[in-house]
Specification:
Layout: H1 94-104, E1 117-120, E2 129-133, H2 138-147, E3 151-154, H3 171-181, E4 185-188, H4 191-195, H5 200-207, E5 211-218, E6 227-239, H6 240-250, E7 259-261, E8 267-277, H7 282-287, E9 292-296, H8 300-308, E10 316-320, H9 322-327, H10 329-343, E11 349-352
Parallel strand pairs: 2-3, 2-11, 3-4, 8-9, 9-10
Antiparallel strand pairs: 1-4, 5-6, 6-8, 7-10
Helix pairs in contact: 1-10, 2-3
Bound molecules: zinc ion (ZN).
Zinc ion binds at residues 156, 276, 322, 326.
């Protein structure tokens, strides 16, 4: 499958996207217009505000081809050691990384049905390179091994259901073998990453410029600002068409693009978002009085029923790629973890997978625009 490509300005590295292979292949914020971590305004890494935010307000910079967690920036580094090259600081053990991950994305925030945590790896092993990815596919695992990662942190679980064998005769067994043979641990941060402050939906909300953001479904065991999905306000009223374009331009280029249900000229301001499949949240979306709901994997019946029961046409729907919606989180997650490990005086390099794991490759459409 082709690497994720920038669809927007094509203007090279915007200083945010981690590009470990130097090929400039992956893009996230296609128009470069998203709000970045470290801008002082978000709830993500570098804003110094939230309890579980990594970093101290210094700019969690991503520079060059990979993020080594040391680019504290000239304007915000709190202590001298933060700007020391990663290579001059000791690498953490996997156990050290697990503690930092638990601080950022507590396992207690995961849904009951989920399977998060360490899938493979020895806690005493040294971890000097960490790759983030949406899916632990074989292609991604090979990419991680090629880069020399000792830890792959994936959003989706490799082993969601119980298995009786990890023989290398199945795809998942092969994945386990390649990881262990290559000395690379695998860690899942799934619905705990969705729910946490600075999580998947928080990043989406920030990227869309939402303010006064609260969870759509507050976490059963978390802070008030934690939970699944987010809802907030745009700075100004915009048309549904312009808003959909904004969503489209934020996302990595994937075949499926963005689908919209609603009048292109309708005006909207209140926006609900849920990264990944969000059609279980329609009741919460209606209760939130959102004008539009942005999520992924909307199926026919939930979507059409939601439109049938919409009040004055609302909420309108914006359906995006599951992979793309969650990919946006990866650079922010890498920065957050890098900041936390750097604050703990560890030296580590982090990067984001360049592999497009969206399962769809092309689309046929009547292409009715206008
Ligand atoms: Zn997902």
């Amino acid at each position: 499958m082709e690497p994720v490509e920038r669809r927007g300005d094509g203007g090279g590295n915007d200083g945010e996207i981690v590009d470990h292979d130097g090929g400039g292949g992956i893009g996230g914020r296609n128009d470069g217009g998203g709000r970045n971590a470290g801008d002082g305004g978000g709830r993500n890494a570098g804003d110094g505000g939230g309890r579980r935010n990594a970093g101290d307000g210094g700019n969690a910079g991503v520079s060059g081809n990979s993020y080594d967690g040391s680019a504290a920036g000239s304007a915000g580094g709190r202590d001298e050691d933060r700007s020391a090259p990663a290579a001059q600081r000791p690498a953490p053990t996997l156990a050290d990384v697990l503690l930092a991950v638990e601080e950022l994305w507590p396992a207690s925030l995961a849904e009951d049905w989920d399977a998060v945590g360490l899938v493979a790896g020895r806690p005493t092993a040294t971890v000097s390179r960490i790759m983030f990815a949406v899916d632990p596919t074989l292609e991604v695992i090979e990419e991680a091994l090629d880069w020399g990662a000792q830890l792959l942190i994936s959003h989706h679980p490799l082993l969601m259901k119980g298995v009786h064998s990890v023989a290398a005769t199945s795809g998942k067994g092969q994945a386990v073998h390649r990881l262990i043979e290559g000395g690379c641990a695998l860690l899942t941060v799934h619905t705990n990453g969705d729910s946490a402050v600075g999580g998947v939906s928080d990043v989406l909300a920030d990227a869309l410029g939402l303010t006064d953001v609260v969870p759509l479904a507050p976490a059963a065991r978390g802070l008030p600002e934690e939970g699944i999905g987010r809802v907030g306000q745009l700075a100004t009223v915009v048309s549904l068409g312009d808003f959909a374009e904004r969503v489209f331009n934020l996302l990595p280029a994937v075949a499926g693009g963005v689908r919209v249900s609603g009048d292109r000229r309708a005006l909207i301001r209140r926006v609900a978002v849920c990264g990944g499949a969000g059609d279980s949240l329609f009741d919460a979306v209606r209760n939130s009085a959102a004008d539009v709901y942005v999520t992924a994997d909307l199926r026919h019946h939930p979507a059409s029923e939601a439109r049938e029961s919409a009040a004055q046409g609302r909420p309108y729907l914006v359906d995006m790629s599951h992979f793309a919606s969650e990919w946006l989180w990866l650079p922010e997650a890498a920065k957050a973890l890098g900041n936390m490990l750097t604050d703990q005086q560890f030296g580590v390099e982090l990067c984001v997978s360049q592999t497009n794991t969206d399962p769809w490759d092309f689309i046929l459409t009547p292409g009715l625009g206008g």
